Amino acid sequence: MSAVRVLVVDDSLTMRNLISAALRQDPDIEVVGAAADPIEARAAIKALNPDVLTLDVEMPNMNGLEFLEKIMRLRPMPVVMVSTLTAAGTDVTLAALEIGAVDAVAKPAVARADAFGELIVKVKAAARSRVRARGDTPAAAAAPRGYVVDPSHVLAIGASTGGVEALVTVLSGFPADCPATVITQHMPASFTVSFAARLDRLCAPTVSEAREGDLLKPGHIYLAPGGVAHLELSSGPSPRCRLVATDPVNGHRPSVDVMFESVARLKRPMTGVILTGMGKDGARGLVAMRQAGARTLGQDEATCVVYGMPRAAYELGAVERQLPLHRLSPAILDLCAAPAARTPV
Description:
The active site is at residues 160, 186, 281. It is built from 11 helices and 14 strands. The chain is an alpha/beta fold.
């Protein structure tokens, strides 16, 4: 397999050198060039034809978001955003992930090449991802006619690489009275507060970062905090969110497997959904949910940015049906509806 060809775009010479040095540590990556702004980057893309772009959020002449929109409209390619950890930097990065950037890494507080711990993995995953032109993803289909939520139903969704765009698509199809929903999306600690707030603005239900002791209620969506703990649900007549600061599972904290396995222990109707993502986190937990009587869905290969987690779950027999992204919302809502309101099988 040929090396992944990467173009590094950042207005800071120091950061360009650091990113390039970090990537060159892997023999399967070739840094083919660097650019200080979008004007230089545009010329370099034409001349060098890179496989992956690393893109700074804030740059002169045109910010990273505007440049990304042009890329995704005119020449779609895998892009990994390199973000500051400020609130403004986080918000712009989340917008970039919605537009179609594959993933994001945070700029290190200390300027050392070895501080970019995840960059190599994310760049190589980006090279294998499916990138679509801006606007090619259909909007989520409408909720089923006559939908009425089952107040006892629990919905659990897991996602990773490509999950920001996927979750926005799925949740934008939910009505305000959606099923009580818990989500684990692999994301840095600094991002999940902003992501929950962004989803809350974009979607009809109430979306918040999960807190210890939150009572699950219909019309509410609870997002696992990034980096610090796993999100679990307590058993009992009134499930609550629990944040458990144990070791990473499958290399992740929060882990989709941990969340799914806790949902599988609930004595109530439940649905599990696994979306785009690298690796296999969530596959084992979704098996546990299905064995406990849950209904289960997976995003199909054609619409995944990375068909890793859904593939692993499907191959284990955890997924009843695979559906394209835009068809997942109505299918989920149908499974979570009050029994009398469900579509006959």
